[in-house]
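Appendix B, Record 12. Input sequence as logged:
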Amino acid sequence: MVFARAKLAVEGTTKAMPETPPNRIPLAQIVNPRSIAVIGASDDAGKFGGRVIHYLIRHGFPGMLLPINPVRATIRGLPAWPSVAAAPGPIDVAVLAVPAAALLREVEACAAAGVGACVVITGKLADAGEAGAALESEVTAVARAAGMRLVGPNCLGLFNVTDAAMLSSSLALEVERVKPGGIGMVSQSGALMGALVSLGHRHGAGFSRCVSVGNQADLELCDFLEFLIEDPATRVITLYVEGLKEPARFAPLLRRARTAGKPVLCVKAGRSEAGAQAARSHTASLAGSHAAFAALCRDAGAVLLDDPAVMVLAADVLDRLGGLPRAGMGVAVVASSGGSTVTTTDMLAGFGLRTATMSDATRAEMARWMPPSHVHLPLDTGSFHDNTSEEALRGCLRAFMADPDIGAVLVPMTTQPAMAKRAAMLPPLAREGDRPLLYVMMAGEVGDAARDAMRAADFPWFDHVAQALAVLRALEAEAAGRDRATLAPPARPAGLALAEGLPSGALTEAEAKRLAAGYGIPVTRESFAATEAEAAAAAEAIGFPVVLKGVSRAVVHKSDLGLVKLGLGDTGAVRAAHAALRAAPLPLDGVLVQEMACGEAELILGARHEPGLGAFVLVGTGGVLVEVLRDVQLAPAPLRPADARAMLRRLALWPVLEGVRGRPALDVEAVIDALVRLSWLATDLGERLVEMDLNPILLRAAGEGCIAVDARATLR
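Logged structural output:
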């Protein structure tokens, strides 16, 4: 099995840069400059520099605009300057849209002219091989020496919608006006940022500041995330992440955003583990960089999504609609079509959502308008006594908005008479309540009038039920993150002792168990035996039946090589097993004699240190098929008991732990305690821990505990 360290970890190990001058301008002045020079400016909007100047003018930049072009006297009616040195200053920001061959010269000119920052649209640098990377390093060194900031290179600049400063060549700015609003965005892809702003524009979403960071040669994603947290114009933050230059900054910033009351929604590229290096342990193969990133986001209260479009649509709901649901609340589906009510309701479970359970008051209100047989969810308004009356719809929606178990109302609309009029009813009703109403126009172009009604009411809408359900799932995750922020910090259990004298590199099973036992994690009774006689004596002392295992630091999976002998019931069997292990065709460090432990279920507990992100722990369905089943959960260390319980509840194995088909409920409390203790072990070891497996942990019936029967660890 393989482990992908990916770009996340690689970028976390950058070389220390030299000290820089103190005259760097603040990010706020880069985002909202008073003066902008466009180097490579042109009248031709088909060129990068031409589009930058065109969009700055088109969207009403209020400051001083300085086109730089050595062969033109004017550009778009503005005086042009032959060089940045000749242009009047001071210049807050220069936008560079020049060929890579001219980039270093122009950056040097900007540095000499005292420009505060450069937005470098130029590409084909570190993203295009060694020569480009060398050029990028030179450019960055020049900027640092002058105290000049860089955005990019290989970016599409930034949209400051709040202050009409559109420093970008993105075709998303072809619209007459980008609507101001509360959505901030930082993206490592300029083209994707433009597409998402364009999508949001179509749906009526409003943006504050959107920044494309490109190669992050100087300013990086976390710098702009920090800016958006403090930015009064931004209410919701969206991130598209490929790699983090300073991953250790990320989680603390997510927590700061949560404290500031600003939801953070994130899409992380690179979920695939393809092409990763072989790992020594199950934990390493299952807890790759993306899994660690996802666990970190959940722990810090951010919402990690797969679909960038859903990220923007969910951010729009968070920005424009109030009344977030509590985690776990149900959904009420309301439609005038039996087909759309049923199919939408059928889809809820696939998105981790459920149909709400109505209160008596809600049922009584519904009973005013329809036969008793139809008083249920989903609500088909075609069952109203007077056939989809507006009065009945208002009454039912108001009841839903007050029902304690209804967290959101979902209204999918199919083709019907007066669609626009019916759509226009919904925004005022939604704003009366304290929970979101999500409207889906399922029809094609014949539904455009209804969409226009939503735009006129400044209200979100969706084209597809699946989009709306994905947004509801994001709102559910945001509510869970909000709840998580209220929890007390993890408390350290008593009696934890770090084992001394352990070597670096791969530990033997006995050494790894000694490490676990020091933190109070139950492990099997066992004894090292160099000879058959020692093995027999150890077995007598432990009590039959016993297990014999060959010990070798070079072996990861002992059972695959026949190095585990189970169920040895007497001295003769122990001697024979010892002889067989000693005859194995690989050198052994010795033989371990263990008690033969039993349990009702097998779990894996694991820990590892993810470079730049810290310590993580893992729990899942254990045994030899752990990497096949991949039923695991990951979380940053240390844990609260509630965190450990939540991880277990997310496992597919959870119903077995609760007791099924006549089997007893298992000792969940014991494995929670073990997982919490392992999380503190991982925290205390810090960067010294590479990875650790306790697999399997045998879980017994409630009250009977758990025990680790095998262990593996690697230390730095």
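Residues 27-318 form a domain with the Rossmann fold fold (CATH 3.40.50.261).
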